[in-house]
Design a protein that fits this description.
The protein is α+β, with helices and mostly antiparallel strands and 183 residues long. Among the domains are: 51 residues; 65 residues, no CATH class. Helices cover 17% and strands 35% of the residues. It contains 3 helices and 10 strands; from the N terminus they run ββαββαβαβββββ.
């Protein structure tokens, strides 16, 4: 009987042929790539070490290592080379969190929380454009640089599918484009 060692277990020859076929077919399949903006390759690996220096000060620093299969002893040796002290203890490996930092997720939206029962309007009305919508702006007395938006219609909706009007909300006046007194 012919046996083949695959690393974890032994297989007979007829089973290895079937395994080789599976390995070949999976190698042909297209693999999905990382999304745009995401660095390819292994994530950075860190170890954190602590030591007490000559002045009895605690030093706790992280060490970036090239491989994630490094032992604690190897990491302690590298930490000692980097910082000049042998660490009392070392923790790790740790990895950076996977994130997708798209620009849309990084936008900070300034929201104003207003009690609707305490709203006081100045009585002035203006018109403008906000996020692709024609809006009527009711100016507020407090805070003074804010207005209450009433959405009228979407700009450039000719023949397209109509969107539902957004809910009315308070917005800073400098965020409204084409702010004017009349239609």
């Amino acid at each position: 009987m012919n046996l083949r060692d695959t690393g974890n277990c032994l297989f007979e020859n007829n089973e290895t042929n079937h395994i080789n076929d599976i390995e070949k077919s999976s190698a042909i399949k297209k693999k999905r790539g990382a999304p745009k903006g995401v660095l390819r390759g292994p994530r950075p690996t860190y170890f954190i070490g602590s030591a007490i220096d000559k002045n009895n000060q605690l030093i706790m620093k992280s060490l970036l290592v090239s491989t994630d299969d490094m032992s604690d002893e190897e990491a302690a040796d590298d930490w000692e080379k980097e910082y000049g002290l042998r660490p009392a203890f070392i923790l790790g490996p740790f990895y950076e969190k996977k994130t997708n930092n798209s620009q849309s997720s990084q936008k900070k939206k300034e929201n104003l929380s207003i009690d609707l029962n305490s709203l006081t309007f100045s009585g002035e009305k203006k018109y403008g454009e906000y996020n692709g919508w024609e809006v009527t702006v009711q100016l507020l007395k407090d805070p003074k640089d804010y207005g209450w938006l009433l959405f009228k219609k979407e700009i450039g909706e000719e023949g397209g599918r109509k969107k539902q009007k957004p809910a009315s909300k308070a917005v800073k006046l400098n965020q409204i484009q084409n702010l004017r007194d009349s239609l």
